[in-house]
């Protein structure tokens, strides 16, 4: 029983940064902007969290700086992709490369010899009564604050997109922006706000890595999680509930490869490291042809045009 609790706890912990980033991807892409920079947002948020925690000595300081770093990335993406209309795929990839190089340099500059020191972080908070439920309790209700925030983020994202007027506006802009413009909605402004919020959600995933999981910053620690989040967005059909299920599937495959590595030490670990990405590839090949993306995704809106 203990082995199963440990395994599913690992699945949950691995899913959290992917879920945050994927929810950010849903928000941005529902508004018509393809956010390929989620990988950079996770890495930028992680670096900001490490820097903030190092300078302030508190995890809350790290969380705030991490969110600000991700918001700055969002402003750059919004300025280039929304305001200037530069190709969204090219912009996102360029931001990923920029963030990778910049965080590696600044980490050495700011953290220096302390780069490998343990940073302040959030501790698990057991919820009374609920944490005592067999199997489910230790897995779901003995987690850190950001895990509980993730529990709220998924239903809140669904409620926002499908049960509020603002969510209707976002979806209208992503599918048929001219209709939203006709009723007086500023399409570029809403898209820019969604992009910034999207990047902050991705940055929250990076904050989780540093403040709740490893308590240290390492170069390229996002390790492809942003790309897996993009796959989860497509597989989940831009629906927060389905996207969450896709994230759990990918986290399960990652936890499985860790267990396989542990149980088969004689096999090169690189072979098992392919499992999450192979799962992403297979899932997209099987299911991606059946999904319909937002109608105006990736297309710059010009008033009076498309």
Supply database-style keywords.
single chain; 306 residues; mainly alpha; ABC transporter involved in vitamin B12 uptake, BtuC; two-stranded antiparallel ribbon; 13 helices; 2 strands; globular; ABC transporter permease; cell membrane; transmembrane; ABC_transp_permease
Which CATH first-tier class would you pick? Mainly Alpha
Shape: globular
N-to-C order of helices and strands:
HHHHEHEHHHHHHHH
Number of helices: 13
Mean pLDDT: 90
Largest beta-sheet details: 2 strands, antiparallel
The side-by-side strand order for the widest beta sheet comes to 1-2
CATH architecture classification: Orthogonal Bundle
How far apart are the termini?
Answer: 57 Å
Structure report:
The chain has helices at 2-30, 38-56, 59-83, 88-110, 136-140, 145-163, 165-175, 177-182, 187-214, 225-235, 240-263, 269-273, 275-287, and strands spanning 125-126, 142-143. The chain starts with a helix and ends in a 19-residue tail after the last helix. By secondary structure, it is mostly helical. Helix 2 (38-56) runs antiparallel to helix 3, helix 3 (59-83) packs antiparallel against helix 9 (187-214) and helix 6 packs across helix 7. The model has no long low-confidence stretch (mean pLDDT 90). The chain has a single domain (2-122, 145-290), classed as ABC transporter involved in vitamin B12 uptake, BtuC, CATH 1.10.3470. The chain is globular. It has a two-stranded antiparallel sheet. Helices cover 71% and strands 1% of the residues.
